[in-house]
């Protein structure tokens, strides 16, 4: 057995030092990399059509000789390049528009494979076909079979790479250890590794390709799940973080609420309390759609820590949200006499210093803040619980820094971005999950409407009418780029224009992320108290804001926002008893953008929206800043491969339960892969 991830690709027949450079440029450095350099797609060239039998509209592949080539100028800005081809049964033209440089690629006498849609109008032609120049002699890799098409750079041709990978399969496909024990392969009906490798590159049939894919996808998913479970297990073995107490503060708090908890909230708080009483630290995700009432649960968690004599932190991604939480906490906790502090960047230095002084002591207290709480100078005397609100807005590093400020603190991360279940297993597989799947009663219905271009004034009129009946409204403009000042100009200018032209008798305010704290607080206060009725905003209002009386939102240039983001924004309304209206206008640039916006009007189900977002945009968005999952997945598609993911999870659970250090002979290769890939992120006893 050889460790193929340590064999330089240079030693594969046909590569050599010069091509090794080219391969390195596409991140193929070792034999293992090359074997997992999977085709982008396949072309079925088992059926080569005769030119004489081509029919109009048919997708076909032909194998022909180049007879002649030529460029034609057919207009001031249009050229047509054509290749006349023959296979002996007839003549067909390959046609390309505005690609005159193709002339240098073809020579009479060459043999070509051409794939595309056949047209039979004045002449028989294939427009913008896929093409490949064949070499001399009997070519078995490039024709007469299902042919792999690789994602390639300019200097490497399909033919070369096919040949090299073919050589590599011959030399190495049977040399590496199979990470899956034979027994497991049998149980899951997965093919052996060499077979899978051959068939992913050079499948005999579509069925063989599918079997290969299943096997290799499983191979990608299993180590990720193992890593997640090992990390989780490691955390569970830490101790000394039990927070047992009479729960006096918690009970007083729950008793003082002006409403009854939903069943889901009660359940979540019970789960959190049970976690926090345990010796091992809590590591839990609280997932609940916008408006499901996560803040109350967060405060409960902080109070459980306080009851046991610890400090608790609530970290929010924006100052506006931190300030709102601060207000909520002031209102709810002042009567209970709970020591509490606010810590955000935009505070007087003296003020900040005195908060820091207070936190250094080991007296119980609650701190609400932004990332200001993870700054270097901030030290906690006795940090016991951490709650991260809107956690998807933070990076892994930021959460880790906060965690490092305590000794095995309990951690609760909260998110209103509903993560599709498949993705949750990969992204948050190391966390326990509490779900708020129930909205508090008495919420008004939210309906969504697209505003057609040219009818925006209708929306303004609607806002005027509704405000006259006691509503308030948000009007949102996108920040084109976080660092650009220009679009703030757009929001600022729009606020002035809206006031002048459309809402002369109303209070119009403006809020954005770069305002001074005093100014921002004043605007939010006026909006909350109803003196501002129309709040013009950037996407800074996306997360967290809770103004029950605001029940209209108009988002302009909606195409600039992601679907989940729009859903979050829509979550700002429908928080009171009134019926709420969400309007959006925009000029979607593509069909996809159009689809996205239409979906928004169709459903308010955050999970459905997240699934759609995932299928339209891929998981990249969700993976940003996460350590595991994304980059290790080449073939796996988290939507399509849900069943395999569940199987991988189950297998990983079994392996971790029976052989947590992966010391058994049949787990040797898995262990090696994990040590190599996740070195240092968790311990397998020995480092490799
Ligand atoms: P989110 O989950 O979006 O963070 P919030 O915590 O901001 O939701 O809660 C939304 C609103 O619902 C707040 O005004 C909050 O006071 C209110 N709320 C929370 N729980 C309940 C409940 N059980 N019954 C009634 N209102 C509630
Ligand atoms: Mg919230």
3D structure, described in words:
This protein is α/β, with parallel strands linked by helices and 688 residues long. It has four domains: 1-41 and 145-176, DNA polymerase, domain 1 (Orthogonal Bundle), CATH 1.10.150; 47-144, Nucleic acid-binding proteins (OB fold (Dihydrolipoamide Acetyltransferase, E2P), Beta Barrel); 262-436, Rossmann fold, CATH 3.40.50; 446-604, Rossmann fold (3-Layer(aba) Sandwich), CATH 3.40.50. Helices cover 38% and strands 18% of the residues. Strands 11-12-10-13-14-9-15 form a seven-stranded parallel β-sheet, with helices on both faces. A six-stranded parallel β-sheet has the order 16-21-20-17-19-18, with helices on both faces. Strands 2-3-4-6-5 form a five-stranded mixed barrel. Strand 2 and strand 3 (78-86) form a beta hairpin. 40% of the residues are buried. Residues 624-630 have low confidence and may be disordered. Bound molecules: adenosine-5'-diphosphate and magnesium ion. Magnesium ion binds at residues 294-295, 389, 544.
Question: Strand-residue fraction?
Answer: 15-25%
Structural class: alpha/beta
**Low-confidence regions:** 624-630
Number of distinct beta strands: 21
Into which percent range does the helicity of residues fall? 25-40%
User: Mind describing the biggest β-sheet?
Assistant: 7 strands, parallel
In the CATH hierarchy, what is the class of the largest domain?
A: Alpha Beta
Taking the alpha carbons of the first and last residues, their distance comes to: 18 Å
Q: CATH architecture of the largest domain, please?
A: 3-Layer(aba) Sandwich
Computed Rg: 31 Å
As for the CATH topology of the largest domain, it is: Rossmann fold
Shape: globular
Number of helices: 22
CATH superfamily of the largest domain: P-loop containing nucleotide triphosphate hydrolases
Placed side by side, the strands forming the largest sheet appear as: 11-12-10-13-14-9-15
Q: What average pLDDT do the residues reach?
A: 88
Count of the separate structural domains:
4
Hetero groups? adenosine-5'-diphosphate, magnesium ion
């Amino acid at each position: 057995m050889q460790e193929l991830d340590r064999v330089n690709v240079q030693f594969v027949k046909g590569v050599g030092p010069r091509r090794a450079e080219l391969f390195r440029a596409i991140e193929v450095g070792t034999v293992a990399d090359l074997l997992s350099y999977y085709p982008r797609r396949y072309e079925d060239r088992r059926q080569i059509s005769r030119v004489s039998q081509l029919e109009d509209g048919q997708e076909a592949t032909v194998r022909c000789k180049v007879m002649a080539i030529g460029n034609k100028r057919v207009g001031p800005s249009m050229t047509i390049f054509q290749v006349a081809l023959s296979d002996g049964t007839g003549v067909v033209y390959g046609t390309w528009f505005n690609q005159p440089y193709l002339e240098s690629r073809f020579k009479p006498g060459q043999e070509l494979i051409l794939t595309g849609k056949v047209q039979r109008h004045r002449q028989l032609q294939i427009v913008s076909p896929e093409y490949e120049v064949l070499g001399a002699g009997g070519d078995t890799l490039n024709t007469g079979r299902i042919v792999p098409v690789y994602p390639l750079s300019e200097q490497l041709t399909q033919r070369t790479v096919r040949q090299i990978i073919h050589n590599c399969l011959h030399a190495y496909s049977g040399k590496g250890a199979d990470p899956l024990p034979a027994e497991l392969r049998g149980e899951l009906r997965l093919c052996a590794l060499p077979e899978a490798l051959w068939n992913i590159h050079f499948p005999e049939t579509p069925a063989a390709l599918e079997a290969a894919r299943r096997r290799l996808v499983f191979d990608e998913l299993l180590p990720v799940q193992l890593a997640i479970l090992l990390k989780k297990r490691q955390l569970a073995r830490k101790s000394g973080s039990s927070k047992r107490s009479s729960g006096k503060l918690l009970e007083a708090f729950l008793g003082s609420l002006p409403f009854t908890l939903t069943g889901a909230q009660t359940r979540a708080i019970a789960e959190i309390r049970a976690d926090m009483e345990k010796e091992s630290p809590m590591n839990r995700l609280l997932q609940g759609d916008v408006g499901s009432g996560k803040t109350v649960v967060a405060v409960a968690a902080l109070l459980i820590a306080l009851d046991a004599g610890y400090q608790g932190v609530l970290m929010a991604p924006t100052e506006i949200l931190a300030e709102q939480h601060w207000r909520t906490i002031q209102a709810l906790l002042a009567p209970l006499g709970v020591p509490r502090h606010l810590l955000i960047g935009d505070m007087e230095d003296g003020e900040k210093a005195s908060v820091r002084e207070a936190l250094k002591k080991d007296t119980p207290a609650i701190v609400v803040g932004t990332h200001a709480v993870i700054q270097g100078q901030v030290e906690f005397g006795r940090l016991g619980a951490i709650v991260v609100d809107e956690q998807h807005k933070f990076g892994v590093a930021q959460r880790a820094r906060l965690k490092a400020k305590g000794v095995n603190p309990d951690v609760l991360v909260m998110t209103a971005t509903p993560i599709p279940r498949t993705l949750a297993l990969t992204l948050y597989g190391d966390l326990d999950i509490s779900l708020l799947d129930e909205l508090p009663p008495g919420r008004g219905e939210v309906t969504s409407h697209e505003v057609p271009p040219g009818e925006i004034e209708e929306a303004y009129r609607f806002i005027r009418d509704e405000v006259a009946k006691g509503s308030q409204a948000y009007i949102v403009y996108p920040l084109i780029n976080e660092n650009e000042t220009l679009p703030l100009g757009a929001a600022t200018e729009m606020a002035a224009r809206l006031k002048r032209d459309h809402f002369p008798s109303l209070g119009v305010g403006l809020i954005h992320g770069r305002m001074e704290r005093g100014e921002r607080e004043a605007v939010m206060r006026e909006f909350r108290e109803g003196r501002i009725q129309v709040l013009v905003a950037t996407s800074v209002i996306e997360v967290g804001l809770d103004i029950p009386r605001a029940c209209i939102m108009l988002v302009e240039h909606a195409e600039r926002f992601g679907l989940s983001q729009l859903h979050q924004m829509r979550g700002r309304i429908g928080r009171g008893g009134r019926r709420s209206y969400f309007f959006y206008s925009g000029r979607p640039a593509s069909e996809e953008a159009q689809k996205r916006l239409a979906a928004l009007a169709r459903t308010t189900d955050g999970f459905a929206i997240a699934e759609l977002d995932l299928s339209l945009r891929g998981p990249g968005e969700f993976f940003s800043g996460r350590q595991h999952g994304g980059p290790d997945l080449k073939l796996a598609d988290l939507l399509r491969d849900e069943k395999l993911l569940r199987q991988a999870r189950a297998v990983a659970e079994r392996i971790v339960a029976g052989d947590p250090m992966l010391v058994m002979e049949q787990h040797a290769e898995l262990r090696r892969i994990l040590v190599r890939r996740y070195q240092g992120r968790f311990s397998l006893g020995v480092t490799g």
